[in-house]
Amino acid sequence: MMAYGNRYSLRSGRRSVAGFAAAGLAVLAASGVALAAEPGGEAAVVQATVDSGDTAWLLISSALVMLMTPALAFFYGGLVRRKNMLSVLMQCLMILCLISLQWVVFGYSLSFGPDKGSLIGGLDWAFLRGVGMGPNTDYAATVPHQVFMMFQMMFAVITPALIIGAFAERMKFSALCVFTLLWTTFVYDPVCHWVWGVGGFMRQWGALDFAGGTVVHINAGMTALAAALVLGRRQGYPDGISPPHNLPFAVLGAGLLWFGWFGFNAGSALGSGGLAGSAFMCTHIAAAAAGVTWALLDWYKHKKPTTLGMITGMVGGLVAITPAAGFVTPMGAICIGIGAGVIPWFSVTYIKAALGYDDTLDAFGVHGVGGIWGAIATGIFATKAVNPAGADGLLYGNPALLWIQVKAVAITIVYSFVVGIVLLKMVDVFMKLRVGEHEERVGLDLTMHREAAYTILD
User: Which of 14, 117, 148, 225 could share a disulfide with 141, CB 3.0–4.6 Å?
Assistant: First the structure.
């Protein structure tokens, strides 16, 4: 029988034994979960014990994913105009604080708590009731439940931060705070439960998402497009917009994102074994392939390879490999990386210009489009030879997986885009989303925060 389609059953086979085939039990045994022989000769989980190696790796991975939000701040901050640098840093760090609290109070429970109708988790774990220092075998049988919760918190934090790239330089800070809390509660938490939560309907379909292609990147990318459309263009766009004010900061941010992404993807194995190593490797080579591909396309079109193009391609490759990292071979990762160089490049270079929307830092073009490609590509390149608890994709004789992936992608696209628009419009009615003409012209650093990123001395 096919294992359930989410990263906890499919990354390392660590969930309750009901419904697992022999391959899943073998993964459990290799993970250090105690097994005992049943009278009929089959193995069953007797108890779950905390493994120090797995726990150490997940703690490190949690820290790496946390680093990605400040890294994103520098990546985005370097790409905006100088007068808006601090506003981007402030927005990212405030999201880090706000969503950490939301996650503890009720977000984690809505995402991973006991299922309510295959659509949302209940409030049984609100304020972390019942989330203790022992393992929870539904999700991670060899690490403390609290550590698993913290790892997931960092995903919940960075996802709304990605959306900033679409509306940078023109949203009020107060509106951002309210919108972020609403969006995480009504978009991120439900989609997270659908794909990864026990009982979620996409999980039951067998949809594969190793580390967040659907939950994180498509989800954020589609709402980013909604935000760009609702807020409208920046003053002077496109001809009156100056280029990125500090590309070295953007390169630094991209490098730190790549570094943190190893925790994002390899940490999603929930253990320090071979699956984590495979995901680590695939993450790296997909980013490399996408970076080279984007640079070559820029070289062909503009006659010069650009630093901005190179780092954008690298991030696009990291986005696309995220749902597939624990399911594909190195060659599959290279193919996904090349696709992540070509498809988002085409979207950013041609589609954005043709349609005229102002996605400031290409949050939709890179994360939305790249996430869609990665999720669909998982249905093509996935193989049980890499992860026995996963599923074979189209190239390995199972076209049904590709159809499951397409359905999951389509539902996420529609839900996150439509609900994103509704939430944006609602916030706009009560407190206005966009800053005034004067504030936008002067810059958000001074008008929103009474600070400047740089002091120029005579």
Answer: 14
